[in-house]
Amino acid sequence: MISSEFKYPFQKNDRSKSAQAMVEFMLALPVLVMLLYGIIEVSRLIFIFASVANASRQAARYGAGSGEPITNTTYYQDCDGIREVANRSAILTEFDEINITYDRGITSEGDQIPILDIDPNPDADTCPIGDNIIRNGDRIIVQVSASYEPILPIVNLEPLEVVSANARTFLISVPIFGSAFPTGFKAETPTPSKVATRTPDENAVSPTATATFNATYEAIRTAFPRTPTSTLPPTITFTPSITPTATRIPSATPTAINCTGKYNVAHGPLIFDDNVMSMEIFNNTGFTLSTANVYVEWNHDTGGAPSLRLNQVELDGQLWTGDLFSPSAFIEAYYPFIPQGESVLEFSFDKNYGFRDGTERIIITISTPGCTNYPVDSRN
What we know:
This protein is α+β, with helices and mostly antiparallel strands. It folds into 2 domains: 153 residues, no CATH class; 113 residues, Jelly Rolls (Sandwich). Helices cover 23% and strands 22% of the residues. Strands 4, 5, 6, 8, 9 and 11 form a 6-stranded antiparallel sheet that branches. The protein has a 4-stranded antiparallel sheet with strand order 10-7-12-13, with no helix packed on it. Helix 1 runs antiparallel to helix 2. The longest helix has 62 residues. The chain is elongated, with a radius of gyration of 47 Å. The chain starts with a helix and ends with a strand. 21% of the residues are buried.
């Protein structure tokens, strides 16, 4: 009886502590659940944001690639390929929109420079785009968007739209020219090469030795005569001939052609006058030079009125005519001669060249030996 009286107070105390802990846990459980749920939802939101940002970045990088993929379409025109690259980052979410557009970059104030008839707003989708309006330095812009909403509608929260846009500059074509300094050109010398002289054989019998032997033989035969049994052949005496000395003819020294140093090929600045872009050329070599190609870049879509087209090229009366609408081009089948002294290379367009953006450039590559691959570049 005594032991039971001592145990009862302790048993009652343990039960009260258990009940108190249960009540405290029930009070803290909603807070704990909300905290865990909040961590999960914030993690989902961050993960969706990272997926959208990575998708736009990888898609823009793919679209800015150089060359052509297997489909024989340039990367910036491969709309399906760009969207496929973006969708590879769609983990635990689905993208609502993948917009692809283009621009000419941004100004110093941060404003976008539009391309002719192309909306540069990332909310627009203008892919694919034509070849004839794209030039070096343009940008591709890929914008990806996805929606976020909580798993459980515990809180009355509207779906959030997660948007990420990324822009990349791409190159269409890169002209490659020789960079080595040309050397003077000299023809082969007309002086004939020396002919090797035959070395006499030490074992050969010289004519002098034969003549001496014959004289000794005749003296002995006269002192001791005998009846010959046969007639000896007459003795042949060799008389050496005199070889005349060859007269050396002086060779002519050819004139070297060089496009560097004092006898160089220089140029003046680019000059714009109404619809003509021109550049002076100074040929100081003293020779008429041939060309391998003529390359030109111009602001073809905003150089005045839209659609600025190249119609004519002229150098010293040598004409090329056509109708080019392109940011850059090698003038096809046009290889003019550069005369001695001063001359002017003119490019005529169909409209006034009203706006220059710094992309204008003229490169003439010379093909004359001694100046082969020497570039006359308006930027140098």
